[in-house]
Write the structure tokens for this entry.
Amino acid sequence: MKMKKWFTGLLVLCLIMAAIPVQAATSLSIRYHKKNYTYTDKQLKVEYNGESIDLGKTPGILDGDIGLLPYYEVFQKALNVSVSYNKSKRTLTLKHDGNTVKLYVNKGNALVNGKKVAVPAEARFVLYRDVNKTKLLIPSRFVAQNLGFDYSYQSSSATISIADKVSEEVPEESEEEETTDEGLTLLYNGQTLQYTDTEYAVYSNGKKVSTEMPAIKVNDTIMVPAYTSFQNGDNGITYSYKKPTLTLKKGEQIIVLKRDNTTVLANGKETTVSEPLRMVQDLGTGKYFLMAPVQVVADALGLTLSVDEANGTIKLNSSVDNSDSSTEETDTPSDTEEMKAMWVSYLELGSSKKTEAQWKAKIDSIIENCIEYGMNTIIFQVRPFGDALYESDYFPWSQYVSGKQGTDPGYDPFEYVVEASHKNGLKVEAWINPYRVSSTSTDVSKLSNDNPARIFRGTKGKERYVLAFNNGLYYNPSISEVRQLIINGVKEIVEKYDVDGIHLDDYFYPSLGTSYKSNFDATEYKASGSKLAIDDWRRENVNSLVKGLYSAVKSIDKNVRFGISPAGNIDNLRSSSSYYVDIDTWLSKTGYVDYICPQIYWSFDHKTAAYDKMVDKWVQLNKAGIADLYIGIAVYKAGYSNVDSGEWGKKSTILRDQILYGRETGEVDGYMFFRYDSFQNSVAQKEVANLVKVLKQ
């Protein structure tokens, strides 16, 4: 009888509990703090003055006990708060009812009515992966209350209620307290400048120019970021910058400016400016910007210049300005752009002689297709065999331009690659092979007379500066003069061309086999008296080159990136008989690389080097976060049944799935694709079509 009563009571209790509404335990797939998560906590709803705000499939989330909400849908759209987002400084400023809150993305402080305070949670970008939408989420209670709203949270229903504050007193009229802006900290003319004057937005023929650096006023001269204002503008200006000279042309009109020189040549006449062309560093981001005095440029090129001090805008127009005067920021903040780069090698170019017209047609076609494939960067090989696809003071002209090594083609091939790529919105990195001189012969007489490898071999005491091995010729990595030659070759590229990066591939030491202790540069090892094992000694030789290259690039332009694409199997890179690349040092100490791009050229089903297993190992190796991690993708294998035990011939989604897997880790920053011609292989078309779809998402 007692048992029956107990069971009846339990049943009633269960029925009562079942009648109480409980929030469904659903989950969200998000990327937060640069990591992918399955978010299982409460999905926050919002009400404003009793009315529900529709957040769609991007609800608010909890970070601990702090509610984070998308600023646009809640504060800007529903609450009608005045909002401005500064893309270059990554700040969000909200104003309401005489109050101002300025948030710094990914930083733990804010300005509230000009006073610096700590925030309970940082403003952060969140990617809602199920719908592929990125939102900037902000600490909702902190912002709402500091803007003067009433705020409450009901945990049981996961609902945030925001309401206009009702006051029984009539507030006295007072001037709105002006927000203190920390401004820009710049390295200007060799000195630190705390810039707190107007930060101007630049418009070209009515269209806002996208730039990370605003225009500024120094000594009553407005200085604009030259590349984005003139090259990326819509005024038909031809832009050419060869350090230290900037040349701008528009039709028959031309102006020539030199860095730090107050004398300007405008349409053949010298004129003096109070502020010359300057290379300016934003110390907040570390990035460099070439800044030009806009008035003298506008006058020389026949542009109409108007400056609106009140709204902080500069307008450059080719004709009468009939554009909308609105300057409201319309950019939607987004996460860091994913690298999608195409390797364009000497194999794409062929060894026959090319006229300038043929070269330009070839490059135009490559650029057009790269854009169609969804790329944003070209990795262009400028030194495949100790030569140069540009006019070099150190290396001979490449046969892949002129048809014969050492022969001048009569034009600058790489200059056109850089200009045409930038004109079409693509970045360009110069790709060099540091040590390789020849892979098909050890006969130095086949090299051009001005080839330094041939000169070394013919100079007494320097014969071993170039080594013959396995039917190839290589610069000796242990010789400091050789390393300096390679460094000088990179320096001239960065000095002469507006490149976005310098790129090295996986060819360092050749594979030396079981006799590695006695062949190649073993003679120099013995003569060195080094106490290191020979394999560690060789790694130090490579490290000396890599560190020297990195330092050389940054000494010229810190905004130019330096990266390396080694082979993809970490165990092989640590071998005693090949490569000798010290990836462990490069990814644990600063001063070596900005990015690493392992060539993970295997499918998911590979028995010893499965793609996902290799990616996971590189993610773990890069845990210090010093370098960006890109993945090299083997498009050249797509569709073929005779590689990797036939896996590539069985599926048409391997490449697509490799990109998706990298994105799932939340640690891969982009991809490089080997190589351009492979995208046109007939057997690869299904794979390529599936790949391109996901690249354009």
About this structure: Residues 398 and 404 are 7 Å apart (CA to CA). Residues 1-7, 10-25, 167-181, 320-335 have pLDDT under 50 and may be disordered.
